[in-house]
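Memo to structure team: turn this sequence into structure tokens by end of day. - J.P.
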Amino acid sequence: MCGLAGFIDLHKENNIGECRQIAQAMASTLIHRGPDASGVWVDSDQHVALAHRRLSIIDLSDTAAQPMHSPSGRYTLSYNGEIYNYPALRHDLQKCGVFFRGHSDTEVVLGAIEYWGVKIALQHFVGMFAFALWDRKQAELSLVRDRMGEKPLYYSWHGKSILFASELKAFCAYPGWRGDIDRNALAQYMRHNTISAPWSIYKGVRKLRPGHWLRISQDKTGVGEEIFRVSGNNCDWFACEQAYWSLDKICQNRETYSVDAMPEIVDELSRLLQQSVEGQMLADVPLGAFLSGGIDSSTIVAVMQSLSTRPVKTFSIGFAEPEYNEAPYAADIARHLGTDHTELMVTPEDAMAVIPQIASLYDEPFADSSQIPTWLVSQLTRRQVTVALSGDGGDELFAGYDRYRWAQKISRMIHHFPLWIRKQLATLIQIPSVATLDRMSLPFQPVLGALGLDRHPGHKIHRLANMLGSSDQVDLYRTLVSHWEQLDQLVIGSDEYQNVFVEHPKCLGQLQEIEQYMLLDMLTYLPDDILTKVDRASMAHSLEVRVPLLDHRIVEFSWRIPMQVKQRNGQTKWPLREILRKYVPNELIDRPKMGFGVPLDHWLRGPLRDWVEALLDENVLRRQGYFDPAPIRARWQEHLSGQRNWQYHLWDVLMFQSWYEGQ
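Reply from structure team:
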């Protein structure tokens, strides 16, 4: 795992020495991503600079140093990630006459590209990656991001230069760079607590979308969508983007298994999972795994332990508050599997000490509060290992989120009634406070349980009221996963960027209702929230995290599994549960799902109150000019009084304010 950065000096205003110094400065901002080594290379003809920070994982020798050149000298690569099937690719390429000096996957990436070309090589790669590749022969820069978006890559056209890097902080080291906040992106952030690719918080800066390839050259006949063109030294440069892998197309062309083929489905998933885990356990440094005690991480650890001759090192954290504490479940799983388990009980003081550092990690506003425990478990894990496997992705692939079933039930219930009736009902429902509804709901727990409203019913009933005005199931789900509404009024001067919730994938109409929700999450929530959170929190500690469930072969296979198999006998993630049952008893599997969170609502009213008051000061908000202070202050007062739990809405504002203060 590494960090990369670089630029094209279009007007060749900097000499080669200056280009090297600038590239080195950009890479130095990413030392946390690669503390072991650094490298810079500059093309003297085109003034293209590639820089790299290295976290040594495979082939720890200097033969794996980057930027790396292909044997012919045509290609130069700065690469972040791991290609898990590189031993098999290396073997195939050697039979074709390709020579290798060392044993790194980076060298295999270059060998594959030189032998097959970028387009075909990408189809061979199994892994997580983001890379910048300079082709001297064609004078073309390729920026590529992995299929699911596990690794980040930003790019920008800035004055007389084109910039790219693993993180936005590298851009700040480029002379004359300034970031102007994009209010449209800020509005989107306030809805989803993240900013979806291809946008970023800064105008003119984009994230490369998962599964995409951006080609930058002087050839205007480039394949794909033209993203931008800029003038260079007596010529124009064109950037064209195309998808080399698409979930939309996979869903359009899928052939699903029969519902009766459950044994075959479980067997094939088990084979694919073992193949993925085995490939991702390759490392020349200590390796372990996150273990929460949930279905996904427990399955990954169980397969790891079955493949290992030594106890797998596993790591979990716990909290004093029972509703947030999964540590006992993780300990039970670890004990049964025989792992070498480390557990850290986190005090409120431990967690809150992280908060001042959190906003700066992400370079742009990011407000998933589980960023706090993710940061803490990454810190704990890095004390013993350099690589950790994670169970992320299981909920999106196998319909594990409670909100899927809840949204489906609500959609089927409310869309029988005319819209005008639903809107009037919504107004009536929201008259009582959340606390009042909690008290009123006590006699109706069995009914509320059937609707998924038995925990925190008042808050969920108010959420239900918001969904009553939805036009269809996608609009309903967008409302369910949205934080702030009426964003044109909240974020001054904004026109919110729309994502796939509005500009639907072509296949959406072919999918069942819950499958629609899953696809929308896999295109937005998974890469923009979950994987971003894990990447930044882990790399802050120079820890590489791998995600076996997001092997694209498993992702593609998961879309062939019928919903009746993914959710069976009232249980979610049924195929994963069946695999896990081979390793642990039922009593360790069948338990209520818990989120990976912190007691944020209590902390905001208690020990964090002074910090909140300072950041949400009305005069400060008004002076900055990004938000209308009125709705923010109103929700803060309602939260303080206990009328409503606005923890997530407030956290959105607080993370922006904390990030903005650090700019």
